[in-house]
Design a protein that fits this description.
Layout: H1 3-6, E1 16-22, H2 29-43, E2 52-53, H3 57-64, E3 72-77, E4 80-86, H4 92-101, E5 108-109, H5 123-136, E6 155-163, H6 168-184, E7 195-200, E8 214-219, H7 227-236, H8 252-265, E9 274-283, E10 289-293, E11 303-309, E12 312-320, H9 326-338
Parallel strand pairs: 2-3, 7-9, 9-11
Antiparallel strand pairs: 1-4, 1-10, 3-4, 5-9, 6-12, 7-8, 11-12
Length: 341
């Protein structure tokens, strides 16, 4: 069974996450192919598709986030090695693990899992609460600075480097302040800002497999919080239960039907204003630069990714190309980075 068949979630997006590693020298496609095939075999995955190439890293990224059931896709453009994982097969930290197993020596992150934090609600409670929120009190949306080209698939992505290392709370604070200013410039107030924060569950002892161990923390009305309030909210937040039954029960089909119907009817009002996912400070001595692009699911469909490496942090934004163009997304990202500089 493929990851996409196991991953019961919003079917309108590809659910692929990206990690880009800039290397001192161009990687050799034949060498990467051998390493990728060995990795797929060790994980019990199907034989991987051929390593991709493109004339620019932007073109390569766009091709690698298109819907595809493969657990892992790899592309090369110059010195850039781009890994694309289906989120049903790997989370962001697992992508770092895959990078290491593709022959780039030790790759380590300071990011830690959520431990034994309790879940906020069960599956039924989660579905009911989120659909009620979407119908009655939807999260704030972010107005595109320059709208995209209208209906169509694909994503637009931007990245920027800032000096220093930053905790997740600082990223959330900077992003929310940038969103407030962005909306004020368009005569709107950022009201009911909801921020989903990607995290990871700790693996079982002895389990070194590449897998999706992602967890989600969700903060509401974040525009009301200062930095200390955000830090406290992150410490106290319970883990969001995915709207997917881990075990089949008599009521599971009814819950899944309600979830699917709700997603279809309230797609633009579900989710959060922004998703933030930070891979922590990463030690990767054979890599010059790292960047991470999380998924663009639900709500506004904008995600902020971050990874620290060699005293600098690369921030990324990813949004739907139907809603945003590159220039507008870059301006919003520069506003976030400017609050961290």
């Amino acid at each position: 069974m493929t990851p996409s068949e196991r991953w019961v979630a919003d079917p309108s997006i590809g659910w692929r996450i990206l990690l880009t590693a800039t290397l001192p020298r161009p990687p050799q496609p034949d060498v990467v192919t051998v390493q990728l095939e060995a990795l797929a075999t060790s994980q019990g995955w199907p034989p991987p598709p051929a390593v991709r190439a493109a004339p620019s890293v932007d073109d390569l990224r766009r091709s690698l986030v298109a819907p595809d059931p493969a657990p892992l896709l790899v592309g090369i453009c110059g010195n850039d090695l781009v890994l694309s994982a289906h989120h049903g097969a790997a989370d962001g930290l697992a992508l770092l693990q895959a990078l290491e197993q593709l022959g780039l020596a030790t790759v380590r992150s300071t990011a830690r899992g959520v431990g034994d934090r309790p879940a906020a609600h069960g599956v039924v409670g989660t579905v009911a609460r989120r659909l009620r929120e979407a119908a009655l009190h939807p999260p704030a949306t972010i107005t595109p600075a320059h709208p995209g080209e209208g209906p169509g698939g694909g994503d637009v992505m931007a990245d920027v480097e800032v000096e220093g290392s930053f905790r997740t709370a600082a990223l959330v604070h900077a992003a929310v302040r940038a969103i407030e200013q962005h909306e004020a410039g368009r005569g709107r107030r950022a009201h009911r800002v909801a921020v989903a924060v990607g995290a990871s569950r700790d693996p079982e002892p002895g389990d070194d497999s590449i897998a999706d161990r992602s967890a989600l923390l969700r903060l509401l009305d974040v525009e009301r919080l200062d930095l200390l309030g955000i830090e406290r909210a992150l410490r106290e937040a319970q883990v969001e239960t995915p709207p997917v039954a881990a075990r089949r029960r008599p009521w599971t089909p009814a819950v899944e039907r309600a979830t699917t119907t709700g997603m279809r009817m309230l797609a633009r009002r579900l989710g959060s204003t922004l998703l933030v996912s930070h891979l922590g400070e990463v030690s990767a001595p054979h890599v010059d630069r790292l960047s991470f692009h999380p998924v663009t699911a639900g709500g506004t469909g904008i995600s902020l990714g971050a990874v620290g490496h060699r005293g600098r942090t690369v921030l990324t934004l990813r949004a739907r190309a139907a809603d945003w163009d590159a220039d507008g997304l870059e301006r919003l990202l520069e506003a976030v980075g400017g609050r961290l500089a």
